[in-house]
Amino acid sequence: MKKLNVKLPQGGSKRALHSGMYASALAVVVLAVIILVNLVIRALPTKYTEYDISTTSLFTLSDTTENLLHELNADVTAYYLAESGQEDANITRLLDRYAGESSHFSWQQRDPVLYPTFAQQYDGASAGSVVLVCGDNSDVLSYNDMYEMDLESYYTTGTANYSFQAENALTSGIAKVTRTAAYQLYELTGHGETALSDDFTDTLSNAGVTVTSLNLTTAGSIPADVSAVLINAPGADLTDAETTILKDYVANGGKLFVTYYTGLVDDKDHVWLGGYPGSIRDVVGVRVEEFAPMGNDFPGAMDHLDLDNGTVAHDFADVITSVADTAHVVASFKADKWTGFDGAPAITVNDFGDGKAAYVGARLGREGLAKSLPVLLEELGIETSAEDDRGEVLRVERADETGENHFVFLFNRTHDVAVVDVEGEPLVASLAQVNESEHTAAIQPNGVLVVKL
Fold first, then answer.
1. What is the pLDDT of residues 339-371, one digit of tens each?
2. How confident is the model over 364-379, as pLDDT tens digits?
3. Lowest CB count within 10 Å: 5, 72, 127, 270, which one?
């Protein structure tokens, strides 16, 4: 048999070896980039990586919730009590949304099988619950708090229908465990007052305000722990004695909330002459002569009114024709000229003696109340919210699967350049300039910095 003598080109084996080394090195670099990009994406808030395609926008957070989360300056941890493999996807996804909005909110799962004594630390905690903890404060949200049953449907059809209301429960719970001061609002009763809507009570609760009923006729005075008194659309006006008590209270430094459709008739059911709200018109400093029901029942009728503070009024609005010299307008209506509402006062605050009275001349929904009430509380001198920290850079810390390597992701959500301290080794800088000598970085708006600790 003849041997084949094949002569390789000179240097061919070296080139092949070098090519192989380059390909291997490139593969390692590409793999490292993919892993790093994956870490960045996993660290991004879920609102940027997941889309809410549910028909009722179950996972789109309201302005009330977003404002609360943006203003958090204390760490809140949510513990979801559920066995592994038995988690409720709605709850876990919503908790992810909350965590994505604030670096001060995080959540962990506690499997009752693995942690049998954990629930015993908190009254009412059981499988399916979410326990919110902030320092020494805690609040337990039961499964029924997050899934509300439609009682009307149940009693009329016998079918138990549930709706996912976990956002309301979570937001109220966070407000409860983080509040540093309690404010007592007394709601006047005994005159056929309209019951406060859930929008109103939830917004007040989120602001740290507790609402308690007060019948002035039986009580005879306003309690000493009062922060403010609320009159919400009574069917009849105050008695002379009640009017005197309220006027003295405000004149001596008290705070009063009055809503639309108040003081139409006196305590003898006679219509007030000279405008509304009846006996306390001088206290609130406005004069109302007409009302505007809204809806789409008739062609050409208004179904809503916009306010210049970005809120929207529905169902009912007062026509405020004059405002006292001692009062100032907090928000006005914005509407077509033909409506007669364009530029008309919607929300006012009046100085009466040493106190103040706020008047809300329209029905606002949850979002409108969430935006308007904090301003009114501040106008009345009731400071309930922490300083807004939305200007800060969002800081998210993540660890790899081994738990050995930790990474910090810094996102600049402001409209200005943010200078931050660099805690470790910078890995990725997008729209960010690192000053290694000073261990700082200047992050441009929408910029991202990834650091390995």
1. 889 999 999 999 999 999 999 999 887 678 777
2. 876 787 778 878 888 8
3. 5
Q: How far apart are CA 35 and CA 38, in angstroms?
A: 5
Q: Which two tokens stand for residue 277?
A: 């709200």
- Global model pTM greater than 0.85: no
